[in-house]
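Can anyone check this?
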Amino acid sequence: MVENEKEVVFQIGAHFLAVQETSEEYEYSVYDAEYKLIDGGQYEAAGKSLRAVSAEILASEPWLNGAEHMDTLQRAAYATSLVNAAATLEHEELLRRADAAHYAPLTGMSASDYLEAGEKAPAGRKFHIYQLKSGEENHLLRFCGLDVLQRERGMGFAPELKNYELVYSGVMKDGETLEDIYSQFNVDLPKDFFGHSLSVSDVVAVEWKGHFTANYVDSIGFQNFPQMAQEITQQQNELLSLCQAIADYDAAHGTESAFIEYDYDKDGWQPCDGTTLEQLKASYPQCVKPSFEVLQFRCKDEVYQAQIKFEGKTSWAGMRRQSGQLYVVTGSRVVGDWQRLNFNAQQVAQYEAFLNRHLEQEACISR
């Protein structure tokens, strides 16, 4: 693009340097790869060209990659070469992208995805709620704001996926934001949600066209953690690969396998109890279909529960519906789904009749 006589924007690696000439001095702003403002100020350099001033400003920036061990003259020459070779951008376009960087986090999207979607929060974004696993090891993390955690555990503290479990997934509506999700899971909880109300220390991951963001519920607002988003992306990709492996094996051998999800940690998906199917990927051992039976249903504290017999043991577990499927949960952990655990037609009918009766009773009470 053609450089404006009074202002110019240079793309320097993963950063953008915007310099404007005013009546008495130059004003500059530095943006990162996600178009967030990270530095800026005024610079006095009367009689110098806009490009020369830009090089001087660039030479003073601490993020100038490759210049860590250069002396002042070398650094200045290096900065000049970068400016002369840099691509330029219209200032209005940079401001448009900076606005996207401000509004995109509210929607749970990256700035680039937000721009690609036409600077709006489209319907169809998936959201996934993660809450800390039970156990003493997470006691000091639970319901704790980042300011406290970073003060006590160091400024480099960040949430780790290995400490969390997925408790709910859903789809966001057109224009829906993270704040809307927070309100819904505090004021109008879905009946198929079995976690606690969305609180500080929870994480809401948002997925759009295969891209994830991980948004920590802080004392005020949400904080984005790209590293956790990468962990979630890896987990989801491995899970998709795992499910495809199961489907391929079943299609080839005329079988129907069951999968029980165990903890995900730094070593990936851990083996589940039961016989390993050697024909599947060695890194993703699976369970042979377990013995599973639904005995009866009840509704307790607005939670649908089923009395199940699993591997010879009888216990009560929650039932929840997501994306047209029914899940059995113990606490907030998904044990298995309606289809893979091979519920028979009688059990399905039993559950549907129970659910309909309960909804009719609720309707009568509300009237």
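Reply from J.R.: I decoded it. The longest helix spans residues 226-253.
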